[in-house]
Design brief:
The chain has 3 helices and 2 strands, in the order ααββα. The protein is mostly helical and 69 residues long. The protein is globular and about 30 Å long.
Amino acid sequence: MSERLLTAGEVADMLAVPVSWVREASRDGRLPHLQLGRYRRYQHTDIQAWLEEQKNGPRRLASTRGTSL
């Protein structure tokens, strides 16, 4: 791994969101991160890939309710 890891503050600046949102999204597993003991760090390439996924909008699960096969 040759790229420098980012802090929550740097990711927040990159995404133009509060640091608290980055930390919460990381805790919830919504934002890719590396857990280094009690620290969370972020790879720029992972954040870029996550952003690309977000362009497609939220994923919707197919509902089976009310359908009969």
